[in-house]
Amino acid sequence: MSWYTPQAMEAESGTVMNSGNPEKYEIREVARIIAEMTNVGIEYVPRDEGDITERIPDIDFALSFGWQPKINLSEGLERTIEWAKDVWRSA
Q1: Of the candidates 1, 13, 20, 53, which lies 20 to 30 Å from 43 by C-alpha distance?
Q2: pTM to 2 decimals?
Q3: Residue 1 located in a structural domain
Q4: How would you write the chain as a 3-class SS string?
């Protein structure tokens, strides 16, 4: 991956570096997109108190090394779904 830079490799051991797209997405919307891409239905259940309702990674640390996101959510999900199908086929 392009974020494996000398500066990133010198980061303190145990440091977390998020990668992703800095856009905010509701978990329900991501689930809906995945369901459409896979032709799978969704059963919505009541949320538990404290459940996460949206996702937005803090990618500032990765950005500080010059890393930039290049893949949008839809393309990333498509690639992940195809990868998972390949893994399941070969199992």
Answers
A1: 20
A2: 0.68
A3: no
A4: CCCCCHHHHCCCCCCCCCCCCCCCEEHHHHHHHHHHHHCCCCCCCCCCCCCCCEECCCCHHHHCCCCCCCCCHHHHHHHHHHHHHHHHHHC
